[in-house]
Amino acid sequence: MTxxxxxxxxxxxxxxxxxxxxxxxxxxYKFLKYYDLSLEGTYPLGAFLAAVLIQKGLGPYLxxxxxxxxxxxxxxxxxxxYKKVKVDPLLSGIxxxxxxxxxxxxxxxxxxxxxxxxxxxxxxxxxxxxLLILTILIKLAIDYYLRSEAGYLLKITGxxxxxxxxxxxxxxxxxxxGLILSxxxxxxxxxxxxxxxxxxxxxxxxxxxxxxxxSIIIGDTIMKASDRLRDTSRAIMGAIVYRIISGLAIYLGLxxxxxxxxxxxxxxxxxxxxxxxxxxxxxxxVNNARD
Length: 291
Description:
Layout: H1 2-32, H2 39-55, H3 60-84, H4 89-108, E1 112-114, H5 127-147, H6 149-157, H7 161-166, H8 171-197, E2 199-201, H9 208-221, H10 231-251, H11 259-290
């Protein structure tokens, strides 16, 4: 039982780190309808930069700031390919993550940077309260931004670019802001993970797109009919539930090498459940219309 509690505690902590990634990815995937794959490059970039700065003795806090800035620059690069080079959104993300793979190796000088035993943002304190407070602060900041005029424009850009133009704003500018904010948060998530696990590895970004999608899809399924839950709250809850399911699967004896398979199955299961709920709702609406 003690081992199970410890495993679930670690899953929640990692879930909080992934929640920041999910809230970042939510901005592009859910609002802009821009399917950005560059997160698989900006996530490890944030981890590598944080680890390098810590290793050089510049401190974990500067490392976290560096991971945020680096992530935002990664978003700028994706926007440059999309807008200036006229590359398809999916391909622009692929180009960015491919370039960042080499940049990450250049930044770190190796495929793995150990920083265990070095100062971290957690110090000697329990990790979960720090992660919880940070996640809540980021959630509140995003909620505040989305309630502003700029946030409203960002939300409607994915569904109605013509309306944004009619309001005298440039929808491409909203995409640029969304990509920068999204990848800055994703870079922060990578920096936090490096602090949490005590190393940065070049493979950290592999399949992280599925993690982001899983968190958003699971979050959208939770209390689906409720309008009280904000999108940020759903992303946080989805990330935590996703990590608990993954951690529980490994605890019950599944091979850790099958984690990517487990992740894919989780996503498929929740998509199927969402589709089932949608069909049920549609049938109910049809029946009510007939009555």
